Amino acid sequence: MSAAARLPDGQGSPVIQTKGLDLFYGNFQALKGVDLSITEKKITAIIGPSGCGKSTLLRVFNRMNDLVEGARVTGSVRLDGKEIYAPGTDLLLLRKKVGMVFQRPNPFPLSILENVVFGLKIHHMYRKKRGILYEMARKSLESVLLWDDLKDKLGRLATNLSLEQQQKLCIARLLVVKPEVLLMDEPCSALDPMSTSRIEELMQELKKNYTIVIVTHNMQQAARVSDEAGYMLLGELVEFGRTHAIFTAPRDKRTEDYVTGRLG
Amino acid sequence: MNMNPRVTQRIAFSALLFSTLLVMVPVGMVIVVILKQGAGAISWEFLSQMPRSGMRAGGILPAIVGTFCLVLGAVCFALPLGLLAAIYLSEYSKDTFLNRIVRLAIINLAGVPSVVFGLFGLALFVNFFGFGASILSGSLTLGIMILPVIITSSREAIDSVPQSFREVSLSLGATKLQTIRHAVLPHALPGILTGTILGVGRAAGETAPILFTVAAFYLPRLPGSIFDQVMALPYHLYVLSTQVPNVDSGIRYGTALVLLVIVLLMNAIAIAIRAHFRSKKKW
C-alpha cells in the first residue's frame, strides 16, 4: 500500500510492529499490506466501517485468527521485536502477554472470585495458596476500580453483575496474568453511555501500565480516548497517525470522508 | 359446505386437546394399575429378603442388588468412553468423511434392537472373551447399549457451551485441553449428567441385553464378584410372569412397581438436575 502509513512522532518505543501484513481467509484477502506501529503505554484506536478488517487486525496480534479455519497470514508482525508468526513461537506465552477484551462482556457463570483467578489456574500460578490468590484478585479488581463495590460479594455469580461491572471484571480477569498489551474489541458496544464513559476513564488509568489497542466503530470514542489512531477501509490501513491529526487534518480523502461523517 | 371459521377453530382445538389427553391415558393407566395391584406387596421384607419357595414367597433383594450392580457397571464403562468420544467429536474432529461415518455409526447404534445387543454380548463378552455369564458381561453389554444416549447428550451439552467461553480461555493463554477442562466441561456437566441418568434408567429397565449375558433364573444370594451371575429386576419379572406357575400376582406387580419406581426416579432426578441448572444458566 501507499506511504500513508507512517510511524507516529517517535515518542515511546514500539511494542507491536507490522510490515506488509496480509491476511487471507481462504481466497478472500481480509488485510492488505498493513504497516503500523503500536506505541508502548499509549492507546491506539483502529476505526473504520463494519467489515473493514479492524477486528481481524486486532486478532492478528494475539493470533486468535489461528482458530479460524483457512486463515493465513503473511508479512511481518513483531511483538517486542520478535516475529510472532515465526515457527516455534510460544502461542500460550504470546496470549498471556497480549490479552483480549471482547465485545460482549463474557464472564464465566462462576463466582466473581473464580472469574478473576481463572487465568492463574490455567497458568498454574499460586495454585495452592489461597491467600495469594485472594491478594492477586484484590489487586486486579482494584486496578479496574471494582474492589470497593465487590469486595463483600466475591462469592456471588458474576453473570448477575451489571454489564459495566461484567466488562470491568473481564478486564480484571485479564490483568491477573500480567499482560503487556490489552486488545479491546469494541469493549463498550454493549454498554450505555454512562457505563461507556466510566470504561473510558478506566482505560486512561490502565494506559499508565499497559499498552492498549482498541477497535471501535464509534468515532467519538476513538477521538476521546486514543493517542494514536488508524483508519481502515476494505482491509487496508488507509491512514495511521496521531489521533488529533487523523480527526482534524486527515491526509487521505477517504479518511476525511469517514471522520466528517460522509461515510459510515 | 362453508363452515363458520370460529366453529372450525373450536373443533380443531378440541381435537388437539383430546389427542393430547388420549396420549396421557396409557401412561396414567400403567402407573395406576401397577400401583393398585403392586402396592400391597411392598413391605420392608419384600425389599430386603431373598426369594423363597421357588420365588413364590419372600423378597426380591437379589434382583434389586443385581440391577443396581449392572447399572453401576454399565455407567462405569459407558460414561468415560462416551464422554471422551463426545469431547473428541465436538471439540477436535473436523467434518471429514471418516468422522461423518463415526457419527452415523453412533446414530445407528441407538437404533439397534436390544435383543441384538444381547446376542452380541453373548458372542463377544461371554464366549469370546470368556467372561461367562457374569456381571461384567452384562454391564459391558448394557454399557454399549447406552453409549449412544451418553454420547449424544454429552455432545449436545458440550456444543451448547457458548463459543465465547472457549475464546476467553484461549485468549488468556490456555491450551485447548485446559480450555476443555476448565472452560467447557464444568458448564456442560449438568447436560452430561442428565444424559447419563437417562441412560441409566434405560439400562435398568432392559431385559433382552441381560438375558444371555448375566441374568440368573433363580439365585437367592448376593453376588460376590463381578464374575458372578445375578438376578435382575426386569428378567425376574419376566420369569415370575411366564416361567413360574401359581405366583401370587401381588409379588409380580410388586416387582413391576419397584422397577417402575427406580426408572421413574432416575428420570425425575434427571429432570430436577436440568431444571436446577437451567435456572442458574445465564448465557
Structure description:
The complex is a heterodimer of chains A (264) and B (283). By secondary structure, chain A is of the alpha/beta class. Chain A has one domain (3-259): 3-Layer(aba) Sandwich (Rossmann fold). In chain A, 34% of the residues lie in helices and 25% in strands. Chain A has helices spanning 54-61, 91-97, 112-116, 118-122, 130-143, 147-150, 163-175, 193-206, 219-225, 243-248, 253-259; strands spanning 14-25, 28-39, 43-47, 71-79, 82-83, 98-101, 181-185, 211-215, 228-233, 236-242. In chain A, the strands form 2 sheets. Chain A has a 6-stranded mixed β-sheet, sandwiched between helices. In chain A, strand 9 and strand 10 form a beta hairpin. In chain A, helix 5 packs across helix 7 (163-175) and helix 7 (163-175) packs parallel to helix 8. Chain A starts with 13 loop residues before the first strand and ends in a 5-residue tail after the last helix. Mean pLDDT of chain A is 89; it is low at 1-8. Chain B has 283 residues and is an all-alpha fold. Chain B has a single domain, classed as Orthogonal Bundle (MetI-like fold). Chain B is 75% helix and 1% strand. Chain B contains 11 helices and 2 strands. Chain B has helices at residues 5-38, 44-48, 61-92, 97-111, 114-128, 135-159, 163-171, 176-205, 208-211, 233-242, 249-280; strands spanning 51-52, 57-58. In chain B, a hairpin with a 4-residue loop joins strand 1 (51-52) and strand 2 (57-58). In chain B, helix 5 packs across helix 6 (135-159). Chain B is globular. Classes of the chains: A alpha/beta (264), B mainly alpha (283). Chain A binds chain B through residues 62, 64, 67, 92-96, 99-100, 102, 104, 106, 108-110, 118-119, 121-123, 157, 159-160, 170, 173-174, 177, and chain B through 162, 164-165, 167-175, 178, 182-183, 186-187, 280-283.
